From TrEMBL:
Protein name, as recorded: Ribose-5-phosphate isomerase A
EC number, UniProt record: 5.3.1.6
Catalysed reaction, written as an equation: aldehydo-D-ribose 5-phosphate = D-ribulose 5-phosphate
Purpose of the protein: Catalyzes the reversible conversion of ribose-5-phosphate to ribulose 5-phosphate.
Lineage: Bacteria, Pseudomonadati, Pseudomonadota, Alphaproteobacteria, Hyphomicrobiales
Family: Belongs to the ribose 5-phosphate isomerase family.
Gene3D superfamilies the record matches: 3.30.70.260, 3.40.50.1360
CDD domains assigned: RPI_A (cd01398)
Key words, A-Z: Isomerase
Any GO BP: pentose-phosphate shunt, non-oxidative branch
Pfam families listed in its UniProt record: Rib_5-P_isom_A
Domain of life: Bacteria
Subunit structure: Homodimer.
Length: 230
C-alpha cells in the first residue's frame, strides 16, 4: 500500500473525532495536509469548525480550500489538535519538527484539550531518537548555543552530530524567524531529562520532544488502522 494512502486513512479516521462547533488545532506536514483536504470537504458540506493553523504553509492550504481560520489570540483554548509526527512511542511521546513547525505545533497542542496524532506505521518506535531531534534556536549566539547543547547532552550520555538545517544552500528559517539544529543522538532513554536540559539553555527556543501532549495516535498500516492510547 502506498504511503499517501496510509496518510489519508489515518487522516480520515481522525476526522471522525471532529464535531460541529469545534475549535481545532491544525497540524503541519504531509499527513496533516491530507487531514486539511478531508476537513475542507466536510466544511464545504456544512461542518462548522474554526481552525488555528500550526504553520504558514498549513494556513495557506486552509485558505485555499476554504477552511475557516482564527488565531490563538482570538480563540486561546482549543478542543482538539490533529497533527502528524516524525516518531511516536508507546507512551505517546513524540519527536516532531521534521517540517520545521515544531514551535507553533507545540503551542497549539498545549492550548488544546486533546491532541490526536496521525501517522503511518513507520513512525512508531520503541524508543525515541532514530529521527534526529529538531531543536529550534535563536539566530543570535548560534555557535554558543550549539556548544551548550553538545555539553548538556554529553552530561546525559548523549552524543552525535548537531547540524544546522539547510534549505536551498541557506540556513532554514522557521515561521518564527529562528534556525533549527537537528541532533542525531540515537536512542534517547530519558526524554524528560533531555527536555529539561535543553529548556535550560537560553538560546534554545523549543525542541521537538512532545511529552505528555498527545492523548491518542491513529496509526495506519497495511493491516488497517489502529489507535494507540495511554
Ligand atoms: C512538522 C511536523 C510534521 O508533523 C512531521 O514532520 C510529520 O510530517 P509528515 O506527515 O510529512 O511525515 O512535525 O514540523
Amino acid at each position: 500500500m502506498d504511503a499517501r494512502k496510509l496518510k489519508i486513512e489515518a487522516a480520515a479516521e481522525a476526522l471522525t473525532h471532529v464535531r460541529d462547533g469545534m475549535r481545532l488545532g491544525i497540524g503541519s506536514g504531509s499527513t496533516a495536509e491530507e487531514f486539511v483536504r478531508l476537513l475542507a470537504e466536510k466544511v464545504a458540506t456544512g461542518l462548522t469548525i474554526i481552525g488555528v493553523p500550526t504553520s504558514e504553509r498549513t494556513a495557506r492550504l486552509c485558505v485555499e480550500l476554504g477552511v475557516p481560520l482564527t488565531t490563538l489570540d482570538e480563540v486561546p483554548e482549543l478542543d482538539l489538535a490533529i497533527d502528524g509526527t516524525d516518531e511516536v512511542d508507546g507512551a505517546l511521546s513524540l519527536i516532531k519538527g521534521g517540517g520545521g513547525a515544531l514551535l507553533r505545533e507545540k503551542i497549539v497542542a498545549a492550548a488544546s484539550q486533546k491532541m490526536i496524532v496521525i501517522a503511518d506505521e513507520t513512525k512508531v518506535v520503541e524508543t525515541l531518537g532514530r529521527f534526529p531531534l529538531p531543536i529550534e534556536v535563536n539566530r543570535f549566539g548560534l555557535g554558543a548555543t550549539k556548544v551548550a547543547i553538545a555539553k548538556a547532552c554529553a552530561d546525559l550520555g548523549l552524543a552525535g552530530p548537531v547540524i544546522l538545517r539547510q534549505k536551498n544552500g541557506e540556513p532554514f528559517v522557521t515561521d518564527g524567524g529562528h534556525y533549527i539544529l537537528d541532533a542525531s543522538f540515537g536512542r534517547i532513554p530519558d526524554t524528560r531529562a533531555l527536555s529539561s536540559a535543553l529548556h535550560a539553555i537560553p538560546g534554545v527556543v523549543e525542541h521537538g520532544l512532545f511529552l505528555g501532549l498527545a492523548s491518542a495516535a491513529i496509526i495506519a498500516g497495511p493491516g488497517g488502522i489502529r489507535t494507540m492510547t495511554i
